[in-house]
Amino acid sequence: MRASSSAILEKIQLPRMFRVRQIFSRPQIDTSDIPAHIQDILSKEPFCTKVKPGMRIAITAGSRGIANVAIITKAIADFVKQKGALPFIVPAMGSHGNATAEGQVEILASYGITEESVGCPILSSMEVKKIGVNEEGMDVVIDRNAAEADGIIVSCRVKPHTSFRGRFESGIMKMMTIGLGKQVGAEICHKAGFKYMAKYVPMFGKVILDNAPVLFAVASIENAFDETAEIVAVDSKDVYEQEPVLLQRAFANMPRIHEPSCDLLVVDQVGKFFSGDGMDPNVTGTFSTPYASGGIEKQHVVVLDVSDNSHGNAMGIGHAIATTERAVKKLDLDAMYANGITCKLLNGCRIPAYMECDRDAIKMGLALCVDFDENNPRIVRIPNSLHLEHIMLSEAYYSAAKNNPKYVIESEPEQLVFDSNGNLKFDLD
Q1: Residue 379 half-sphere exposure, CB side, CA atoms within 13 Å?
Q2: Exposed, middle or buried by CB within 10 Å (0-12, 13-18, 19+), for 373?
Q3: Per-residue H/E/C for 31-89
Q4: Confidence band for 339, pLDDT divided at 50, 70 and 90
Q5: What letter would DSSP give residue 127?
Q6: What does the pLDDT read at residue 259?
Q7: What angle do CA 8, 13, 16 make, to 5 degrees?
Q8: Is-cis flag, bond preceding 121, omega within 30?
């Protein structure tokens, strides 16, 4: 421990914690059934007749950690091939992957999407093509390979956005506008900031639907367990009406922390794999803008680590009051800054105070809380913002939790166990 803070933090006593299983509804499509499910929905009109023999079809693949994304992508490519057309994959992830073609291919590979696994080429480029102008005179661009294809199938997940609210948040419209727009298009759309994103996403999206060869979308909704709950096909002419309905279903299926508030929230891992903001503010309440709200109310957040499959992009770590040296050493600042500059938000890129180990970081967070019961603090610990079935609560919650039908108590309150280096011994997952 750093000498200047050791005496202060030594006095901080961490409360006993207990483990709970949170109860959520669990609609699910079994992984083994996904290929047949996609084949079934795409074999119906109007989708089955939109893909014709000899057409070159671009299929989008994004940068989020979508459940079963490799299986979904391959199933769409297989359908295209069955129709006698020629599919290829286009990374649709704005500025992610260090805003480079190579970096975006690496992200897809980390999700199991390779030319070998999906059985078709991956055409990765940051080059874009202007396809129109929106009603405010702003250029609308998309990936050149997609723009010059005979057809585009937008594969994506529909979910609440982390920085704004609107009829269209993360989903089909945003995948076309920000994802297919690459770094150039993402920057154009973000230029006025998130205050106007609810207006600009559909405004840009409409131009793309009108001027690009978008055939239809294949959209997934996930349950609270990071599993595929629904997969639906949406015709290009129906996106404007159907996507808002899908967004409401996605809201209903989101994981959440059942406790409304705490003094300190401890997040084991952050990273782009879990959320565009590293930790989904719809869960953690760590919003970067005033244009969205929700999540748990808390005084401070402590982040302990960055997931390896997020490639050092720990956007969102800046919302923590404290973190660890281990986490800071994993940061890819270039990737984080490229992401932050593109979306006009750098507060999530800031490096918080960092301590040598988990124990000191948690104590630092607790030491900075005010107006709370120091003898019985309310601490919530989660593995990340995506997997919330198993969490830990401090003893202050124990009596109420025993009578809460949303919880199954999995352990009695006990002291957190740290190794000789001061790091937590046991993961929550």
Answers
A1: 28
A2: exposed
A3: HHHHHHHHHHHHCCCCHHHCCCCCCEEEEEECCCCCCCHHHHHHHHHHHHHHCCCEEEE
A4: confident
A5: -
A6: 98
A7: 160
A8: no
Rounded (10°) angle between helices 3-10 and 358-367: 70
Amino acid 162: pLDDT: 86
Alpha carbon of residue 372 to chain centroid: 32
Q: What is the pLDDT of residue 313?
A: 85
Question: What letters, b where the CB count within 10 A reaches 16 and e where it falls short, cover 39-59?
Answer: eebbeeeebeebbeeebbbbb
Angle CA 284–285–291, to nearest 5: 140
Rounded Cα–Cα distance for residues 226 and 39 (Å) = 22
- Element spanning 208, H or E: helix 197-211
Query: Can you tell me the distance from the alpha carbon of 424 to that of 308, in angstroms, rounded to the nearest whole number?
Result: 18
For 237-281, the pLDDT digits (tens) are 999 999 999 999 999 999 999 999 999 999 999 987 788 788 999
Amino acid at 381: R
Residues 6+ apart with CB under 8 A from 296: 257, 259, 260, 261, 262, 265, 283, 284, 285, 380
Residue 58, pLDDT > 80, answer: yes
Q: So what's the pLDDT on residue 310?
A: 79
Provide the 8-state DSSP code for 261.
B
pLDDT in the model for residue 57: 98
Give the model confidence (pLDDT) of 91-149 as tens digits.
Answer: 999 877 888 999 999 999 999 999 999 999 999 999 999 999 999 999 999 999 999 99
DSSP secondary structure string, 376-428? Answer: S--EEEES-SS--SEEEEEGGGHHHHHT-TTEEE-S--B---B-TTS-BS---
List domains and CATH numbers for the chain.
3-24+256-409 (no CATH), 31-253 (3.40.50.11440)
CA 6 to CA 103: how far, in whole Å? 41
